[in-house]
Design a protein that fits this description.
Layout (H helix, E strand, L loop, with lengths): L8 H8 L4 E7 L4 E5 L18 H5 L7 H9 L5 E7 L2 E11 L5 E10 L6 H6 L5 H7 L3 E6 L2 E5 L1 H7 L3 H4 L18 H13 L4 E8 L5 E13 L2 E10 L1 H17 L5 E5 L5 E4 L1 H7 L21 H13 L2 E8 L5 E12 L5 E10 L1 H23 L4 E4 L5 E4 L1 H7 L3 H4 L12 H14 L5 E9 L5 E13 L2 E10 L1 H53 L5 H32 L6 E5 H18 L3 E5 L6 E5 H17 L5 E8 L3 E7 L7 H4 L12 H4 L7 H11 L4 E6 L3 E9 L3
Parallel strand pairs: 22-24
Antiparallel strand pairs: 1-2, 1-5, 3-4, 4-5, 6-7, 6-10, 8-9, 9-10, 11-12, 11-15, 13-14, 14-15, 16-17, 16-20, 18-19, 19-20, 21-23, 24-25, 25-27, 26-27
Helix pairs in contact: 16-17, 18-19, 19-22
Amino acid sequence: MDIKIPYDINFYEALFEQIPVIFWTVDKELIFTSSFGGGLKNLGLTKNQIVGSSLFDFFQTNDKSYEPVAKHILTLQGICTDYHFKWKDRVYHSYLHPIFNSNNEIVGVFGLALDITNSNSTIEKFIASEEKYKTLFESASDAIFLMDKDIFIDCNPATLKLFRCSKEEIIGQPPYKFSPEFQPDGRTSREKVLELIERALNGESLAFEWVHTRLDGISFFAEVRLNRFKMGENYYLLAVVRDITEKKEIEREIELLANALESVNECVSITDLDDILLYVNKKFCEVYGYEKNELIGKSILFVRSDKNDPELTKQINPATIKGGWQGEIWNRRKNGEDFLIRLSTSPVLDENQKIIALIGVATDITKEKELFNKIKYDAERLKILFEEAPDPIFVCDYEGKIVEANKASERLVGWTKEEVMGKTFFEMDLFDRKNFFKAAKVFYKALKTRPTGPDEIVIFNRNREKLYIEVSTHPIVIENKKLILCVARNITEQKKILFELAKAKEAAEQANRQKTIFFASMSHEIRTPINAILGFSEVIKDYFYDKSDPEVRNYFEILQNSAQNLLHTISQLIDFSRLESGTFKFQIKSVNFNKEIKTVVELLKMIAKKKNLKIEYILPEEDIIVKADQYSLNGILTNIINNAIKYSEKGKITISLDKDEDFAWCTIKDEGIGMSEEFQKKLFTQFAREDSEFIRKTEGSGLGLILTKKYIEVNKGNISIVSQKGKGTTVTFTIPLDK
């Protein structure tokens, strides 16, 4: 049974609420008397919301020359008009027609506006044809169905043509009757279509692809848009169907091509014949900085730079359609950066040799251009550097003939570049007999394509002046020809200086040896009387100490301390001299570090006790064995702890021992006077002592730390000192473990 809706104004008004068109009427005073259509929602308006307001209010202007106002005024004079207008980020094409009463008098204006911002709506295109509203439905090239739930109640002629049937054969039937049993996703057509109808009736606007079947059984792909509209108290469905079989075939072919192009390392784009992008590969997105969905559907001109000649840009599309185009052109990345590409385009043909798309393959040659310019610049720069290099540079072939030389080489040998070109070094008579063979040996080594030198050779220039030079050679290849680069350095003046230095060094070493002999002999001569003084002072002290008053007893202490300090200073001077001259005899062996610390502390704790200083050590339970010279290790500990006692007036001195995989770590911390930041920069220099009232009262030679550092170096260790004025000093040194 056929169910039909009569063609009345309510029917079409309900229909037009579903399509993006705006309709309105104004009276002779330009006051809105009606407004409706699906396009109102893009302006945030509802049906008849603006009725009663004027055009001037709507456009917020009093200017009668403002185009929309001026066009309405012109239409009130009986002239049909149209115009394009941009409003709220949308572009509209508006059509105006005068409204006549029964007496054929103009009483207002009727207008409709098409949203042409995205001009791909078939229904909009047909509305723009200015046909009457019924013609819109009847003459649309896309199939249009009207449905009451899942039953067709009306359709346009394009539907009959698409499905190859009569109106009687389609009205009253459900959509799944004109579909195969299953859709491509495996679901039945009936199940899926009922689900989509239910969603649309619930107010969801749907767009989807569907496989339909014509009455003759032939299937085709379709693009379907499904929307509901209200008429009276009931909701109906409007379906617009477009045959996209050809499009799907093209897409399939393009997809096959795209899959092959996805891994290509050039930027590949595929456009339709109007330069609209259909596909870009992964490399294209990487280079241009866009996501694929930001490019598909846009013109390829979207990525062209303004730096191009417009005429050049216009040539590419027609040339591609004719067979192809190649050249360089500027394009623009998403971040606005212009870059140069090498572009090659060609048409894509189907099996019937019909052009179905255009393909472009582009390579970013920005870096290539930069590299070319850099190479050009570097070549000029290297030429200048070669010519102006302070050292003589020769280039010779494997026969020894000179093929290139710089200015410094001319100054070295005394011949001009033109005079030496094509000659060998030996033909220039540069060598005496001894150096001839030495130079020949160097050249022979260079022929083995390995760098040589620097080798010292004596040559004679054109004036027969004797010159000392250092020669280095490097194998090079220029234009596939093997060559030898020879760099010479004139060291004649340096040799003269070295000769003088050698003499001075010999004299200094002789003096140092004499100093060592002097200190060695003085050691015996000075230590003997000092030991006698210490021995007899002890005897005199034992005899007179108990019988003397306190002041005299103090003299004995001063005498013995002074003699001990003098003996210690002499020992330091002798050790320092031996270390400086390299005659210090040391024996590296296994040493118990724990035991050595206990020994030194035991010797020095009485000195600390006299100053009311507490001295303690923190040692691991397991003995740490190091590879060291026991004498110098004892000297290190003695000097550092003795300094801690000497420069402390209160508090305690703590010695701790630890180890890592390779070294023993010893830390000696005091709470003494500390050192200034400035003086710490001068540590480990001979005879260095910080100037202060306290230090001036304290005896010392200034050799302790420098001698300690040399002891540590002998034992292949390191030392570091952290100190703060008034807050004490922490000394840490390392000695290699005995593994």
